[in-house]
Amino acid sequence: MKVVAFNGSPNKEGNTAASLEIVAEELKKAGIEVEVIHIGNKAVRGCLACGTCGKKQNEQCAIATDDVNQWIQKAKEADGILFGAPVHFAGIAGTMKSFMDRLFYVCMSNNGLLRHKVGAAVVAVRRSGGVTSLDTLNHFLMFAEMIIPTSNYWNVIHGTSPKEATQDAEGVQIMQVLGKNMAWMMKLVESGKGTVEEPQREDKVYTSFIR
After folding, report:
1. Fold of 2-192
2. How many whole angstroms separate alpha carbon 107 and alpha carbon 180?
3. What pairs with residue 147 in β-bridges?
4. CB < 8 Å & 24+ apart, contacts of 36-39
5. CB neighbours of 196 closer than 8 A, spacing ≥ 6?
6. DSSP symbols for 123-191
7. Which residues of 141-161 are buried (b: 16+ CB within 10 A; e: fewer)?
8. CA 75 from centre of chain
9. C-beta neighbour count of 127 within 10 angstroms
10. Three-state secondary-structure class, residue 81
C-alpha cells in the first residue's frame, strides 16, 4: 500500500514538512510506502470553473501550465492521501487552496476518484488559526466521501522556525497517533475489499435555495 503526501508549504523543510514526516514515519513502520510531493513553492493557478474536466471525463484539469494533472494521477493511484498546509491569516496557503480546488473538482467530476480512499489533513501554525485551517482541509475530504482517520486531538502542530514543531511534544504525539490510526484504517479497508460490499456511488443532488 502507498500514501502520497502533499506539502502545501512554501518551505520545503519547514514545520509542515516536519508534521508530515512524523505521520509518515508511523506509516512506514506499518509497512506502508510514503511519497512526499512539495507543491507549496509551485505556481499553481486557481480553478477557472469552466467545467471542462466534467465534460471531457479525462481525469484532467483544462489548465495544463502546471503539474496539477500529474498530482491528480498520483492521488488516484494512492491508497491513502495526506494533505499538509501552513496557516496563513487563519487559513491555508493560497497555493494549497488552488491545488485542492482543482484536485477535488476534477476527481469528483470524474466518478469520484478519491471516494473511499483514506485521507487525512495536518496543519502547522505559529500561534492561532490552526483549527480553522484544518477545518478547511477536512471539508474537501468529507465532500469527496473519503475515509478520515482521527488522532487524540485536532491535527495541529505548533512552531515558528523550521523544524521547531518537533519540540511541540503534544503536537508530535498527535501526528504519531494519526499515523498509527491511518495505517490501521488503510489495512482495514484493504482487508475488507471483496468481503464487505461497498455502497454504490450516488449522483449528487443539487438544491438551489433561490425561490
Report:
1. Rossmann fold (3.40.50)
2. 27
3. 118
4. 36/4, 36/5, 36/6, 36/7, 37/4, 37/5, 37/6, 37/7, 37/71, 37/74, 38/7, 38/12, 39/6, 39/7, 39/8, 39/67, 39/71, 39/95, 39/96, 39/99
5. none
6. EEESSS-HHHHHHHHHHHHHHTT-B----SS-SEEE-SSTTGGGG-HHHHHHHHHHHHHHHHHHHHHHH
7. beebbbbebebeebbbbbbee
8. 9
9. 8
10. strand
103 contacts 37 by C-beta, under 8 angstroms: no
User: Would you give the DSSP letter of residue 90?
Assistant: T
The grid coordinates listed for 136 are 478547511
How remote is the C-alpha of 52 from its chain's centroid?
23
Residues in the chain: 211
Supply 199's cell numbers.
Answer: 455502497
Please check the confidence at residue 4 and state whether its pLDDT lies above 80.
yes
Helix (H, G, I), strand (E, B) or coil at 96: helix
Element (H, E) at 31: none
14 has a pLDDT exceeding 90: yes
User: Treating both helix axes as pointing N-terminal to C-terminal, what angle do 94-109 and 130-143 enclose, rounded to 10 degrees?
Assistant: 10
Statement: residue 211 has pLDDT above 80: no
Look at residue 43 and tell me whether its pLDDT is greater than 80. Answer: yes
User: Can you give the pTM of this predicted structure?
Assistant: 0.96
16-30, 35-49, 61-75, 196-210, range with the lowest pLDDT: 196-210
What 3-state class would DSSP assign to 20?
helix
